[in-house]
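re: the backbone from monday

yeah here it is again, tokenized this time
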């Protein structure tokens, strides 16, 4: 039987990647099979992100390419999903009339229905303003998904964000925070582990405020409960699922990193020794202008508390350089925080305005691009220093690796990841499959990654080998 084929292009963050898994799961349940080459697909989905720079230009360029394909094969269906679809909705159809379906972040569950309806009745734009408080549709993890790996899985614990960071479009496109019920998450974690998953990553825009809306709702219904985040409890409960070896989460907000979360991390063996805590800037004035809700000192205190409680904790962060109004003095404070933070790694971005955000309105305060580039390089030097030092410190140590598969750049090597989220390349070992755990001696530090040698296989993969579905 010849099945129809689909191709999804994903832009942006893990939340989008997880939404893509969900769209893929729905399409496969509808009988479609994945295909690597977009030109061979019958259904093409672009899952967009408006956080990245020039996201709209890139989308329209891609849609321009697809117009040729659509002219040659009018039966091909093209759908645009994700944050940019949520934000620009009608504009997309106006500028690219060959698009069949536009759907937003709150109705991903409708992907297949919309494609069917569009085939019958013509193009559709369906974008909902807010997520429905219906667990079966609001959360990627609650729907059938086609996971990219069999041994690791994401689990969305919360959608939306209640904060108002001046540079960020997320609250506008993903809506207010909505947490998935606690017991459902723990049950899903059990199901994933039963299916062979060894590592789960909890996903949310501000994971450590998880559950605040749930306790608030209970209070409104008359229950005598304290309104509080439930994230620490969730870490313990999911981390306690028998058979789960590694639990990660991303991203927490520094202002909501509570002491009980640090204690839960320290006391739950499955929780990995890695904290990604986005700081964004080191100047208190810049942090206030960003509406981040903490100072540089407060941030460093929290990092110090986490390091004191959790042995061998790797800490990574995000920085935005050249935020509107950032002076040389502000930036020097960012450099000081970067040095004091001794980060294992940092994602660094030069500020670029996102239409619809508060910061984008501050055009007269924009930092000259050349100045921002120069600052970026100075920050990179500071981060490189601490990250190289952290990598060097691991040389000679024995590390536990979760094997991810063949190295993408060298066929003679395999890639694994430590609990601290460090990438380690090791010489290929016959029979060592993705999903296995192995111990390795670290022999060399190479900037962004480490080189190691396998000492012994600690555990075989727990998942069954998947027989690939091949579209013919
Ligand atoms: S916490 Fe701030 S940066 Fe993160 S999603 Fe919410 S508004 Fe955006």
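seq for it, each position gets an aa:
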């Amino acid at each position: 039987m010849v099945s129809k084929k689909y191709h999804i292009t994903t832009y942006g963050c893990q939340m989008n990647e997880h939404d893509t898994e969900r769209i893929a799961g729905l399409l496969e349940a509808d009988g479609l099979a994945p295909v690597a080459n977009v030109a061979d697909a019958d259904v093409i989905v672009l899952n967009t992100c408006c956080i990245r720079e020039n996201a709209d230009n890139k989308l329209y360029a891609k849609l321009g390419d697809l117009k040729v394909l659509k002219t040659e094969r009018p039966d091909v269906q093209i759908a645009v999903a994700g944050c940019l679809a949520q934000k620009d909705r009608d504009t997309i159809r106006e500028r690219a009339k060959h698009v069949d379906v536009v759907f937003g972040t709150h109705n991903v569950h409708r992907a297949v229905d919309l494609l069917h309806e569009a085939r019958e009745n013509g193009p559709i734009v369906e974008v909902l303003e807010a997520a429905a408080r219906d667990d079966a549709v609001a959360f990627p993890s609650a729907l059938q998904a086609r996971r990219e790996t069999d041994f690791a899985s994401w689990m969305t614990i919360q959608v939306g964000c209640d904060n108002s960071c001046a540079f960020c479009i997320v609250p506008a496109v993903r809506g207010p925070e909505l947490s998935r019920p606690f017991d459902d998450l723990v049950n899903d974690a059990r199901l994933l582990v039963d299916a062979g998953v060894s590592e789960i990553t909890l996903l949310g825009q501000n994971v450590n405020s998880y559950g605040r809306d749930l306790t608030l709702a209970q209070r409104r219904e008359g229950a005598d409960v304290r309104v509080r985040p439930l994230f620490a409890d969730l870490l313990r409960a999911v981390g306690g699922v028998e058979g789960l070896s590694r639990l990660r989460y991303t991203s927490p907000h520094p202002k909501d990193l509570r002491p009980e979360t640090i204690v839960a991390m320290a006391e739950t063996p499955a929780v990995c020794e890695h904290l990604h805590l986005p700081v964004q800037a080191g100047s208190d004035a810049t942090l206030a202008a960003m509406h981040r809700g903490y100072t540089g000192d407060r941030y460093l205190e929290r990092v110090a508390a986490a390091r004191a409680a959790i042995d061998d904790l790797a800490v990574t962060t995000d920085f935005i350089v050249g935020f509107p109004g950032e002076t040389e003095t502000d930036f020097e404070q960012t450099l000081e925080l970067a040095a004091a933070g001794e980060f294992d790694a940092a994602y660094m971005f030069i500020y670029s305005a996102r239409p619809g955000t508060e910061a984008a309105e501050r055009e007269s305060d924009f930092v000259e691009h050349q100045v921002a580039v120069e600052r970026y390089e100075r920050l990179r030097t500071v981060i490189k220093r601490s990250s190289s030092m952290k990598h060097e410190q691991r040389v000679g140590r024995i590390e536990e690796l979760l094997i991810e598969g063949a190295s993408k750049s060298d066929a003679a090597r395999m890639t694994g990841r430590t609990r601290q989220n460090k990438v380690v390349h090791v010489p290929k070992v016959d029979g060592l499959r993705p999903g296995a755990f192995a111990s390795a001696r670290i022999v060399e530090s190479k900037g962004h990654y480490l080189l190691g040698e396998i000492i012994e296989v600690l555990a075989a993969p727990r998942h069954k080998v998947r027989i690939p579905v091949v579209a013919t």
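Residues 140 and 448 are 31 Å apart (CA to CA). Residues 161, 163, 165, 168, 170-171, 205-206, 253 surround iron/sulfur cluster (CB under 6 Å).
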